[in-house]
Each structure stands twice: as C-alpha cells, then as structure tokens.
Amino acid sequence: MRRSLIATTTALTMVGLTPAFAGSMSEPAAEPAPAPVAAPAPVSMGGDWTGFYAGGSLGYADATGTDGFDDSPTGLTYGGFAGYDYDFGNFVLGGELEISGFDVTEETLGLDVDSVTRLKVRAGYDAGNALPYLTAGGARLATSGAIDDSGNGVFYGAGLDYRVGGNMRVGGEVLKHRFDDYAGSGIDVDATTIGARVAFEF
C-alpha cells in the first residue's frame, strides 16, 4: 500500500512538472536587431577661396614684333593686382585687375614698353590649399619713345595660387599677349610674361 502511494505521488509530480519542461523547450526569444550605424558624412578636401585679395608681382617679359620691330627685347616686370574669387565647391571663378610696369626697351625702333594693364577672368579648380587656374581677358599696352601711345589687345595663360597661411597666398603665372596693329602703327606685338605673385586675402 505504501509503495502504491509513493508511485502514485511520483506520477502526479511528473505530470505537474510536464508543462514546466514543455515551456522551457519553447523557441528562444528573438534577440533585438542591432541599431543601424550611420555612415560618416563625407569630408570635403577643398578649401574656401571665396573673397577679395590683393598683392604684388615680379617677373620677366619677352617681346617680339613685326614691321621694323627686329629686336626681341626682354626685361623685368613688376606690379600690383586685386581681385575677387567665388568658390562653387570644386570650381572657382573670379575676376582680377592687374597693372604691371615693364623695364623693356626695343632698341631698333627706340621703343620703350612702359606698362600693361589687364582685366582678367580666372577659372580654377579647388584642390584644397592649391588653386590651379586658367585666365584670359583684355590688355592695354602703353609705350613711349618711337610710339608714345597705347593700344588694346588680348591675353591668355595659366597660373597657380597656393595658400601658405591663414590669409596669404603665393603663386606664379604665365601669360601670352597679342596686340595687333598696335596704336595704329601697323606693328603687331606679341609678349610672353612669367611672374611670381604674393597676395593677401581679406
């Protein structure tokens, strides 16, 4: 009788535990998905070239001409300039006014090249601290001696500005000039200038 009672009690205990074991065998709870990680925002490698600037230049000129302009005079150039650039992101567009004095004399005619004034359009690429650019525009040449006059022409070229401080840039520029029938003289004058430039931004 006692064995029967123990067996019955054990059986009832097992039956009572069955739901608990059944519950423990249920599918495991799903782990929450990790939160998405936002991709880092792209970092611009360009610099901001927007603003006014002004500075000075020192360089070298080589001129050639026609109709009695038999010499190829060379000499120093020097001057000042001021301009404004606008940075569109990778593309920089600007304008500049430059006045350059010339220490150049054409001996055959006795013609002194006094100055060249340029009105420039500049288009460049924002490469961070560097700004390579192309430039073109109108130029006005002034001479004395055999031709004491002035005349208009055109020019084109390329240059590079490099920012070396918070508001300072250095650079260089190569320009090709053309003055057809200069001052009505029948002489065509070509000139190539190479210049070093220093400017401050403000």
Automatic annotation (TrEMBL):
Q: Which residues form the signal peptide?
A: 1-22
Outline the extent of the Outer membrane protein beta-barrel domain. 38-202
Q: Which UniProt keywords apply?
A: Membrane, Signal
This protein's species is Salibaculum griseiflavum
Q: One GO CC term of this entry? A: membrane
- Matches recorded under Gene3D superfamilies: 2.40.160.20
Where is the protein situated, by its record's location annotation? Membrane
Q: What is the lineage of its organism?
A: Bacteria, Pseudomonadati, Pseudomonadota, Alphaproteobacteria, Rhodobacterales
This chain belongs to the protein called Porin family protein
